[in-house]
Amino acid sequence: MNCIFCDIVSGRSDASVVHEDDDVMAFMDIRPWTSGHLLVVPKRHASGLADLDPGDGAAVFAVGQRIATALRHGPMRAQGVNLFLADGIAAGQEVFHVHLHVVPRTAGDGFGLRGMPKSPSRVALDQTAGVIRSSLT
Ligand code: 5GP
Ligand code: ZN
User: Fold this and answer.
1) Which terminus, N or C, of the chain has the lesser number of Cβ atoms within 10 Å?
2) Which numbered atom of ligand 1 lies nearest the CA of 37?
3) Residue 118 CB–ligand 1 contact under 6 Å
């Protein structure tokens, strides 16, 4: 299987590593959105959320949370942090090995997600909630 993040995890490709344990690795994104932007990945390959072991997902989030604290309170002095995960092409996923983006933020850094918030009625919200609720497995 050809996977650039598996190559990094196995040491076949270089990365600037911030954290490594038995299950998770975190390294700098080579095309950062802001200075300090990094990626947290499970060591076991999962192309998307559907095949990600929930324990690995929890471990990835825990490391992301820990790194966010370091970014906020360490020398990077971030004023805020965004966590972002793209699952699927329509969501902007380009590398098909699950990864959590950890993006340090400062006021006026120019980074942002563009969205067009709508104002659905409570009835519409309840109906959508029901559809999603009925598909929970
Ligand atoms: P996605 O769009 O899939 O959520 O994000 C993929 C991210 O992986 C991008 O931000 C991109 O810059 C980063 N990336 C792509 N190839 C490499 C690589 O070889 N090494 C590292 N460290 N990051 C990569
Ligand atoms: Zn992989």
Assistant:
1) C
2) 10
3) no
Active site residues: 99
Express each pLDDT in 93-128 by its tens digit. 999 999 999 999 999 999 988 889 999 999 999 999
CA of 48 to the centre of ligand 2 (A): 10
Q: Tell me, what amino acid is at 100? A: L
What is the pTM for the complete model shown? 0.97
Distance 110 CA to ligand 2 centre (A): 31
Burial string for 19-56 (b: 16+ CB within 10 Å, else e) reads eeeebbbbbebeeebbebbbbbbbbbbbbeeeebeeeb
State the architecture of 4-135 in CATH terms. Answer: 2-Layer Sandwich (3.30)
pLDDT single digits (tens) 48-101: 999 999 999 999 999 999 999 999 999 999 999 999 999 999 999 999 999 999
Asked if residue 92 has its Cβ within 6 Å of ligand 1, the reply is: yes
In this prediction, residues 31-42 reach a mean pLDDT of 98
